[in-house]
Amino acid sequence: MLPQHSRNLALELVRVTEFAALAAARFMGRGDSHVVDQVAVDAMRTALQSVQVDGRIVIGEGEKDNAPMLYCGESVGTGVPPLLDFAVDPIDGTRSLAAGTLNSISVIAASPRGTMLDPGRAMYMNKMAVGPKARGLVDITRPVAHNLRVLAKAESCDVADLTVVIMDRPRNETLIDDVRACGARIRMIKECDVAAALMTCWEHTGIDLMLGIGGSPEGLLAACAVRALGGDFQAQLVTFPHDIINWDGFSLGDPLYVDDLVASDHVLFAATGVTDGELLKGVEYFGGGAVTESIVIRGLTGTVRRMQSTHRLKKLERLMDEHDTP
User: Which residue from 221, 223, 225 is spatially nearest to 93, judged by alpha carbons?
Assistant: First the structure.
């Protein structure tokens, strides 16, 4: 269980994502994904070292893409309790940021030690996310048509009224065909499915369901946020190629429900916009400073805070030189 000062810890995590976003946003549209990853990872690692926790990285984005990363098992924080697991993605949407397109965010989630799933070598998941109205009603092991009918009933609408977000990848082509055959609308995305999963939990986003195979780091991060928001997130681990892997009583293709992915309501989630998107505004620079927009979610209460922060960059650079954080 997280201590009562988890309210303050949630705000500390926002500082971590802000720091990574500020470092990476300078490279928007400059075409170098590796540099984007590296500066974001370095900034997030530096910021995490000042957080008053005994933290452990359970999963990060870099291993899947052979990119710079906060590595699995890495210790972060000052080394004092509480003991926490962390899932991190310094930039969800690295290619989007390097290309100068939309929806890149910096993301982190935390929960009590031992409550986050470690997917090991399975760096991809088949994922499904829905909002609170359909929690416990959909089932990732059932056909797409069944889940769309159940979701439409929960939303008091027709299947044709639903919008499904799917990542535009060859591995999802059969799924896309199945959704089209049911008559639902589809929103294609190139990456950034953490934000897509979150939007299923908020009214007026126009997103009802997120489906498809994507990265396990993003899946675990999304599961933390969706659980905190009262929605439902389910997954099945997959690999490419499909070799046989087993983890503690379950194997490839077994359904993983929200409690399997993050087994605690004491979960914290924070994200900061890097480029403009539907979830968050990107970093905006002005003479000597920058403005960021972030959200922080506290699972115990379900509280979502959206915040705008103004940063004085020279002061931040000085703090960096002193090995501190913003």
Answer: 221
CA angle 282, 284, 285 (to 5 degrees): 150
Q: Which of left, alpha, beta for 52 (phi over 0: left; psi -120 to 50: alpha)?
A: beta
pLDDT at 63: 52
SS3 276: coil
pLDDT of residue 12: 94
Q: Which residue has the higher pLDDT, 250 or 187?
A: 187
pLDDT of residue 320: 58
Is it the case that residue 174 has pLDDT exceeding 60? yes
Rounded mean pLDDT, 111-126? 90
Find the mean pLDDT for residues 153-159. Answer: 98
- Give yes or no for a contact between 195 and 92, defined as CB atoms under 8 angstroms apart: yes
Please say whether the beta carbons of 200 and 227 come within 8 A. Answer: no
| For helices 144-154 and 173-182, angle between their N-to-C axes, nearest 10 degrees | 50
Q: Is the pLDDT of residue 242 over 80?
A: no
Contacts with 172 (C-beta within 8 Å, 6 or more apart), sequence order:
166, 211, 212, 213
DSSP string of 179-248, one letter each residue: HHHHT-EEEEESS-HHHHHHHTTSTTS---EEEEEEEHHHHHHHHHHHHHTT-EEEEEEE-SS----EET
Treating both helix axes as pointing N-terminal to C-terminal, what angle do 6-25 and 313-321 enclose, rounded to 10 degrees? 100
Amino acid (1-letter code) at residue 238 = V
For residues 61 and 59, give the distance between their C-alpha atoms in angstroms, rounded to a whole number. 7
Given a contact cutoff of 8 angstroms between Cβ atoms, the answer to whether 72 and 57 are in contact is: yes
From CA 100, how far away is CA 24, in angstroms rounded?
A: 12
Q: Alpha-carbon dihedral of residues 163, 169, 174, 176, nearest 10 degrees?
A: 20
Question: How many CA atoms does the CB half-sphere of 204 hold within 13 Å?
Answer: 1
Tell me phi and psi for residue 293, to 5 degrees: -120, 135
